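testing teh design pipeline on a random one, pls ignore if ur not involved
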């Protein structure tokens, strides 16, 4: 972070920059985000039979696809090698609750991928049902968990791709 701004994506002259994470060690990272789509009870009852198709399955796939493209959508976000993405949608009386989990082994966090997955899944539910419900509201897009676990010493990325432990002989 710069002393002047307190923001890691702003250089001392006030220009935006992508943070250099090259010297940071690899670690296991996990983030969970949630979003809610509020809608009429009649819409909730029709989510599986909308004119555009099954809203929940389509939204799940859209969330997964979006997480994989986060760095293309958020200008200063690092492209990450995602190891897992899980998007779950649950029908509740007030609408649809979405939970997205993203995981990686990298030098920076994966929260933007989880938030992007939850957001795009919510937007997809909205898009799928907008023809029958003009009162829907997307709300409560929030990061609910972020974890970082150090890897054992001497782990190299090449060890991870071969399934090795990275321990010395």
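output:
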């Amino acid at each position: 972070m710069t002393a002047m701004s307190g923001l890691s994506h702003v250089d001392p002259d006030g220009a935006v920059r992508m943070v250099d994470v090259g010297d940071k060690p690899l670690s296991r990272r996990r983030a969970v985000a949630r979003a809610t789509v509020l809608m009429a009870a009649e819409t909730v009852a029709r989510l599986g039979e909308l004119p555009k198709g099954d809203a929940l399955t389509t939204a799940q796939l859209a969330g997964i696809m979006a997480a994989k493209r986060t760095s293309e959508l958020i200008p200063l976000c690092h492209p990450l090698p995602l190891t897992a993405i899980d998007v779950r949608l649950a029908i509740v009386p007030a609408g649809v609750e979405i939970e997205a989990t993203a995981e990686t082994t990298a030098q920076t966090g994966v929260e933007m991928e989880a938030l992007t997955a939850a957001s795009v899944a919510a937007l997809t539910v909205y898009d799928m049902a907008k023809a029958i419900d003009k009162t829907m509201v997307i709300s409560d897009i929030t990061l609910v968990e972020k974890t970082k676990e150090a890897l054992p010493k001497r782990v190299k990325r090449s060890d991870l791709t071969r399934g090795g432990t990275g321990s010395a002989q």
